[in-house]
Amino acid sequence: MPLIVLEGPEGAGKTTQLARLAERLTAEGKKVVSLREPGGTLLGDSIRAVLLDPAQHIDAAAEALLFMASRAQLVEWEIKPALASGAVVLLDRFFLSTYAYQVRGRGLDEKGVIAANKLATAGVKPDLTILLSLPVEEGLARAQKRGAKDRIEQAESAFHQRVGGAFKEFAGAAWQKKHPEAGPIATVDATGSVDDVHARVIAAVKTALSIRA
Predict the structure, then answer these.
(1) What digits encode the pLDDT tens for the residues 31-60?
(2) Which of 33, 138, 195, 212 is the most buried (most CB within 10 A)?
(3) With bands split at pLDDT 50, 70 and 90, how would you rate the model's confidence at 162?
(4) Where are the domains of the chain?
(5) How far, in Å, CA of 77 to CA of 122, rounded?
(6) Helices 14-27/194-208 angle, 10° precision
(7) Was domain 3-207 assigned CATH 3.40.50.300?
């Protein structure tokens, strides 16, 4: 069964849409495993707490490697076993976020990050990435309504603009051709109501994959 990743900038609604998709697929009788990055394992959850702690001051390279460590553990301990069991795996963020946040946002060397990601993912490639598209300002406004900002959300506006620009580039055919490790990417408009976006996500899944949703 497939690995479906939900990606996008802050406030795009990934977590909400992943939960809705999981409910829909479960109702159709499919076994669904929902995971998130960073996290999903004891090690990953510990790393998540460090990465999102506003009191932490983390070097860009250290930040990227912490994400990779969480990813490597998640791939081996959760994603691979779930796929082998026949489950549909839904993942809230994967390595497109690393490319957007750490390469474009923080300015790290792309080749080095891709090499580290290759080690962390151990050949696992998404069957579909749903890239939720939302203006950066709208996403940050949504995120602010959730309450206190985490360390990533507290970054300066220019950082979030670079991240948003990266996701827009990832949606293009030229970028995807140069990055086959990303697998197919379907861009979904994340504006409007939760129900409206959910309908678009379902349509994208139906179009891209041979599973009923």
Answers:
(1) 999 999 999 999 999 999 999 999 999 999
(2) 33
(3) very high
(4) 3-207
(5) 12
(6) 60
(7) yes
